[in-house]
Amino acid sequence: MPSSPEFPIPLQDLDAGGKQFHFSVRPAWLRGALEGTEAQASDAGGELDVRASMNGADVVVRGSVTAELTVPCSRCLEPAPVSVHEEITVLAVPRASMRGSSSKKGEDAEDPGDADVIAYDGEIVALDDLVRDGLLLGIPMIPLCSEGCPGIRPGS
Ligand SMILES: [Zn+2]
Q1: How many angstroms is it from 141 CA to the middle of ligand 1?
Q2: Rg (CA), the chain
Q3: How remote is the CA of residue 17 from the centroid of ligand 1, in Å?
Q4: What is the pLDDT of residues 68-113, one digit of tens each?
Q5: What is the residue-averaged pLDDT of the chain?
Q6: pLDDT tens across 52-72, in order?
Q7: Helix H segments across 1-76?
Q8: Looking at the domain assignment, is residue 156 inside a domain?
């Protein structure tokens, strides 16, 4: 990540007990993050709420992201508003330690379930990619502009 992260978790604030973080998901950020996908940002943006705690050098992040997005209706292709709510669980490990350990995951250490594992650099865990992926995962497979969408009307 070349620029400074939109959703930074500073490690210096963390301990084993955990700390709550709240971020606004700005429409401007969403627009950039969703570029190249079918989803578009709405003016409403979204919210990111996570709890982060240290576990040795690892950081356990749990929470959820919500956002109002617009995607093409799968029947009529008109813009359909969707409310995305996606749970986020991730284990952030120092990039240095990730490089060495092959694909071995978890082992005997306390395993936070099937959490994703991301790498962090320095003193900050950036949640940007995670938030983007979570939002894309949270988009319904078959979004509809309305329950009764009749689909594309021939000849109209
Ligand atoms: Zn529709």
Answers
A1: 14
A2: 18
A3: 47
A4: 999 999 999 999 999 999 999 999 999 888 755 444 444 444 454 5
A5: 88
A6: 999 999 999 999 999 999 999
A7: 27-33
A8: no
For residue 31, give its domain range: 8-99+111-138
**Whole-number Cα distances in Å, 60 to 35, 57, 65, 75, 99:** 28, 10, 16, 40, 19
pLDDT at residue 126 is higher than 60:
yes
Task: State yes or no: pLDDT of 149 exceeds 60.
Answer: yes
Cα 83 to ligand 1 centroid, rounded to whole Å: 16
- What's the mean pLDDT in 118-142? 94
Q: How far is the CA of 87 from the centre of ligand 1 (A)?
A: 27
Residue 146 CA, ligand 1 centroid: distance in Å = 6
Q: Residue 150 C-alpha to ligand 1 middle, in angstroms? A: 7
For the chain, what is the domain count? 1
pTM: 0.82
Q: Could you give the C-alpha distances from 39 to 4, 69, 83, 108, in angstroms and in order?
A: 24, 7, 12, 39
